[in-house]
Amino acid sequence: MLSTSFSVPGPSGHRALSATSGHMDTRTAALEIAHAIHDAGGAGCDLMLFFCSYHHTAAVAEAVETLHGVLAPRHALGCTAESILGDDQELDGTAGMTVLCLFLPGTRLTPFTGTPDAPVPLSRSEDIPEHMGLEEDTRAILMFADPFTTPMTRLLPALNALPRFDGPIPLLGGMASGASQPGHNRLILGEHVTDVGLVGLSLSGDIDLEFVVSQGCRPIGEPLVVTGVEGNLITGLGGRPAKMLLEEAAVSIADEDQSLLEGGILIGSVLDEHKHRFGRGDFIVRSILGIPRDRPGFIVGEFPKLGQTIQFHVRDAKTAHEDLHLLLDAQQLQGHPFAALLVTCNGRGRRLFGHEGHDLSIVRQRLNAPPVTGLFAAGELGPIGGRNLLHGHTVALTLFRARTPQVM
């Protein structure tokens, strides 16, 4: 099934066209999409965002060649994923391919890569801006990365601490998914396809990129201070064995909420330790990766510090639904975006809500049905509290708007 969307160009000329195919054959899906966008006037775009499910991995290079041959984009960026979404289709667990073509007059796009052989110069922070094409008027960085070969624990702090800029430049995108071992993901930059590292583009000049990061988790119990830690193993909370506190949190959940434990208990790390009370949006949520039998603690997907405040969380469809609507309330006070990039967690979709299309349908309904493309990722990139972070269990939504002239 093929679906398409397009935005009407405004006075600035910014516009977008998208198409999504559920065809199993890679070449057929690419041709369907390419000709649909071409016939709607989408050839020669400034940026083509491309995502496909792992079903198409073996022939991704052929699909990229086909799309470039028909659409001739100036730049292209994308990756493979467990599942994709676009237009009005959320193809969760089935073959899918989606393309968004963006016309961005007055915007400068600078591509960059980072591989094990030619990495981003993290040990020389003064060289990062040139490597990534960062300028004084850079609005955001779009980036997709292979989780097996990208040092995110070093990359994010380096970008957040760049000395030449007034605060971190928003980093948007996510981690390729659908592969359980190195070498099986695919990343696309221009006409080049690789299976390692990261690919990205900096966007500078005449463009506004707004971002929404919505976490589908609810805190349970009370905040706790980390009092024992070994690497990424939390051994003590509030002076007690961490494993004991985890077991007590599971037992304390109300009977009507016991089904939430099927998704496991998560851990939320407080973003701002100076707050006296913590609620929704005050945490960065991570999975509990393991519980060693012979140790008093549990392993988490970060490196916690002594004195850090954490709180246990559970996945909650009702909270996820309310949180996304609440964040989109603020976006409706602005002009309609002409396009959107939706990166959502593998744990959302049908797994969380029981049906397909939850996040996608809300975004389309609330924001005047812009062309949308996106993927289910192995980690979502987006800023919270003035810091770029790698999230789990979230929606990371990027909205493209024409830049509003500043009144002097």
Uncertain parts: none
- What is the count of DSSP helices, taking H or I runs of 4+ residues? 8
Strand content: 35-45%
Q: What integer is the average pLDDT?
A: 90
What is the total number of structural domains?
Answer: 2
Q: What share of residues is helical?
A: 10-25%
Rg for CA atoms: 21 Å
Ends distance = 50 Å
The structural class is alpha+beta
> What's the β-strand tally?
27
Largest sheet: 7 strands, mixed
Strand order of the largest sheet: 1-2-7-3-4-11-12
Shape: globular
Describe the structure.
The protein is of the alpha+beta class. It has two domains: 2-214 and 320-401, no CATH class; 219-314, no CATH class. 19% of the residues lie in helices and 38% in strands. It has eight helices and 27 strands. The chain has helices at 26-39, 60-71, 128-132, 152-160, 242-252, 317-331, 350-353, 358-366; strands at 2-6, 15-21, 47-53, 75-81, 83-86, 89-91, 97-103, 107-114, 138-145, 171-175, 187-189, 192-194, 198-205, 208-215, 217-219, 224-230, 233-237, 240-241, 265-270, 283-290, 298-300, 309-315, 339-345, 372-377, 380-384, 387-391, 394-401. The strands form four sheets. The protein has a seven-stranded mixed β-sheet, with helices on one face. Strands 6-5-24-23-27-14 form a six-stranded mixed β-sheet, covered by helices on one side. The chain has a six-stranded mixed β-sheet with strand order 8-13-9-10-25-26. Helix 1 (26-39) runs parallel beside helix 2 (60-71) and helix 6 (317-331) runs parallel beside helix 8 (358-366). It is globular and about 65 Å long. It starts with a strand and ends in a 7-residue tail after the last strand.
